[in-house]
Amino acid sequence: MSNKLIKIITIVIFVHIALWTLLNLPEDPGPDWQGLPKGVSFSPYRENQNPLLSVFPSHEEIRDSLRFLKGRVGSVRTYSSLDGMEIVPGVAATLAMPVTAGAWVDHRLERNEREISTLIDNARRYKGTIKRVIVGNEAILREDLTPEALIRYIERVRREVSVPVSTAEPWHVWIKHPELAEHVDFISIHVLPYWERISAQYGVSWVLDRYEQIQKAFPKMPIYIAEVGWPSGGERQGSAKANPENAEIFLRRFLNMADRLDLDYCVMEAFDQPWKRKIEGIVGGYWGLFDLENRPKYSLEGPVPGSGNWIWLCTLALMGLMPAVLYLRYYSHHTESARLFFSLLIQATASVMVWIFFMPITSHFHFAETLSWALLLPFQIGLLSVVLINGFELSEMVWPQGLKRRFVPLTPETETDLPRVSIHVPICKEPPEMVKETLSSLAALDYPDFEILVIDNNNPHPELWRPVEAHCSLLGSRFRFFHLETHPGFKAGALNFALSCTDPDARIVAVVDSDYVVRSDWLKSLVPYFRNPRIGVVQAPQDHREWEGNVFKTACNREYQGFFEIGMVHRNERNAIIQHGTMTLIRKSDLESLDGWAEWCICEDAELGLRVLQKGREAIYVKESFGKGLTPDSFAAYKRQRSRWAYGAVQIMKRHWKALLPWNRETKLTLGQRYHFVAGWLPWLADGISHIITWAWILWALGMLIAPATIGPPISALVLPVFGVFVFKLIHFFWLYRARVECSLLERLGAAVAGVALTHTIAKAVLRGIFTNNQPFLRTPKCERCHAWLHALIMAREEAVMMALLWLTAANLNIFYGEKDPEAILWVTAVLVQSLPYAASVVHSLMSVIPSEVWRNLLHFAARVRFFGATFGLRSYRRKRVSPPRF
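Request: output the structure for the sequence above.
Response:
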């Protein structure tokens, strides 16, 4: 193992351990607390005891539990005066332990009478021990009793005892039934933030807010917090996570706050009660300060011991070193910076994957959360795969010194050995003047031996094709024009017809789109590559013209450039370029042996290129522009073109997926070629899945608003990878564009908007491609007139609706959850992030109709505002001349 490899691995391990340690530092729990809780709820049931099954603790077990609590708590609160609990006041009296005595009342009227009678007897007998009594526990919340019936019980007890009397209900029940306060001596509230889906971080402040709310509603009444606490284990409730760390932090903060404000309270509860799992779920058994063996669960002093899960997860995640080492050994020609970057990314991805995979175990998921995790797991894996794919592209394209396969235009030694080329120009309902310009540029080619076949198909408009036919006649004998009134197979059908009419002496077939103005040295610079018998395809990039000065077309052009300056160069490194249907040269013999262009596929060019590679041929990409076409004139045309590409890509994958399997030996595709074809189309598949996820988010959010008691915010940890991937994709885009595409920052922003704006279009095309096979070929119209504002919104109407739905969802979630559950802000932000592609579509569509002069004025105004803001100290900009951006 080389010293450089050891150095990189050492850095990766150090960064890995440092980040895991940093992200798992224990949370500051606040000051130590060394006092005794003023009170605790007392239910002395042991393992296998259950009041629901009438299995009660013995009197001796109750005495043992009370003796254990002596000196550990200030007082106890009971819920019942029967089934053994009637002895509690007497035992507590011998221990000098104050008691808040309770009577359980519900729909069982006969039992209620016995509860009330026993409570009254004990209150009279143990006046020095029973400090207050509570008649009923959440009886109104459970709808066991009406407020009127409960009031009758309360008034009866008040007449019979000399201590303060109340009933215990959650805080909101007192707000809903203020009449209760007229019949009690103090307000007894339950404030359990866990059940309200409040995170432990905000739990204490939420408790104080509810206390103050009750205080304002009943300013003359004493307030007793009859239940407050946090479970140490069990299911998650929204943002509320039940674990020992959260429980200790909440208790320590609450106890300090209660002491500081001199609150009267009772912690829920003394001992863990397993029987409650039947009615509250797993969490019901984990509310105690002590476990079933009477061991204290919290120290309430010193640092809170963090979960040790992260240590073994951190260790397990080091499995990322295995693929990192393989990468470092196989790609030793990459620069050291590139190798370090991608090794760190591999390790980071392994860490996230381990964290996600073990989340149900480390976070104590209940069934619904586990189901959500399982459904989202493939999506999370897909996102991380996209990160690795983009990261590998970064490692090679930001540091291109490691690239091996580069091609430049050639200069032929002599012209005598240059083969005859047949140039095919398919057209369909195109503007005649545009086509004539293309044909004139082809007529000026500096090449000794070529022919040009112009095929006009499926065009019933003579006024469009007859001028082209006439122009071909003027250009000379090299040009042959064919008009096919009806012909199957769309563009592929036209190209196959041209192949059938090609001069038998031609050795190379070239394809040019009808809007391309071609450089005169195109053929002479590229055809010489075919002297190598292994070469099957030579491809030059698509390029565009007449976009300067137009904001919409500038953004489109820069977005196109990203693929040809970055993606194609990267794919060329492993002989895996995408053949596109213009500025391409292909060996005629290969085209004939492969039975021509695929008429079943609307991306016949890319499909043919894959078949050429399967044959074992090489494809060359020369990154120099030899021709320039027109950018789409409208957002609708821009979308149609990308929809065709995405749908065609799915068609190709469905037809050739077996050939792309790594273990398939029936094809001559290399692993690198298979990787690029799968990796290149995976982000489009991710867009399709993301579209489904978006609708799932909207429906989930709707459920949160309709049934908040059942459906809460999703697990925050499952939302975080979405943010991480979003941020990484932004970094990937702008870093690569800055390194590889010569354009200004504003143009990069425009390219980003243009690319993201196609997300919805790609997603729909991918999903249609998966379930259908017969979408027609949609040509990309050129030279369209500028559309009105309304038409711009119509072109992006689906995206506008999705954007509005997501914004409405985010607004409603913020209104209903933002104040109640601060962690819901993460969910709101996720919805807004999910809306960005749809917003980009609307913006890009508007860019296609708003005159560029308006955009320039807006940017000029923004620049002036920025300048004056800096001048008057409104923002901290450096004092310098501010110029409006140029397009």
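The domain at 421-542+580-631 is CATH 3.90.550.10 (Spore Coat Polysaccharide Biosynthesis Protein SpsA; Chain A).
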